[in-house]
Amino acid sequence: MNGLGTSEINLLKLEHRIKFCNYLSVAQIFLQDNFLLKRPLSEADVKPRLLGHWGTCPGINIAYANIKARFPKAQFILGPGHGFPALQANLYYDGILEQYYPEATRNLHGIEYICKKFSWPYGFPSHSSPATPGVIAEGGELGYSLATAYGAMLGRPDKMAAVLIGDGELETATALASLNLNKLLNSEANGWVLPILHLNGYKISAPTIYGRSSERELLQMFRGFGFEPVMIDGTNDDEFQQVLGKANRKTFIIMRTPKGYSGPKQLNGTKIEGNCAAHQVPLPEAKTDATQRQMLENWLKSYNIEELYDEFIAK
Hints:
The protein is α/β, with parallel strands linked by helices. It has helices spanning 11-30, 57-70, 84-93, 96-100, 108-117, 145-152, 173-178, 181-185, 215-224, 237-246, 290-301, 305-314; strands at 75-78, 160-166, 192-199, 228-233, 251-256, 266-267, 270-271. Helix 1 packs antiparallel against helix 2 and helix 1 (11-30) crosses helix 3 (84-93).
């Protein structure tokens, strides 16, 4: 499947998309009002019950944006479906969500709609689900993404699927066994499956096995399964695009990002970014604790939403 050339990729636009989707990921988890920060955050602006998974969202936004920039027609298959705020942010950004949910308009009303309805009764669930456009697997179970990708590409030689696999997910038996499909189904008769391991180093409450593995161990393991692995810094879009430009049917991308990248660095002496503490809601008392609420406001403002929103509306 032919993608766009490197010279056709606008890296600044790519960076802005990722920041916008990071902002929306945070806003969906936390906000019930004041969605563009037109005034200081108040207690009333924050949801009474905070539920969602932040830690994997930045990596999802990075992978999704880079894949779609290079391969606009690729199918994106998400392993860590608990990072649903990021998936929904991207579906909203591309106008796909509005096709199925007319209130998800590409303006302030649409942002209000997806934020208020996220993880809310009769709204959107906290994980990807069959109600999500294009979802072909439930998002609360880990391990099936790579097998799903190969199955989706059977007999479709003109198609491509990029599949994001969580490093915690890769510890499951199903995900590990699915690596063998590269030797069974990787042929010109089927579509191209491009696996991307999201190596952020942590699962819900502990480090991942692969996060503690050396680069040599990881590369050798995937070579043993018949892949040609390459490790990249996921925070560097230029490097990501260079690798995508050279990718082929044997490529396996290992994408390193800190857990909860671009979020709070620490809380009450506990490391957040780059730690399992970023996995779910990193500021759990943001509604009632003024210090955490100010941290949330600073976090949201770090994405420069005013500039991003104007660019989004003009798109």
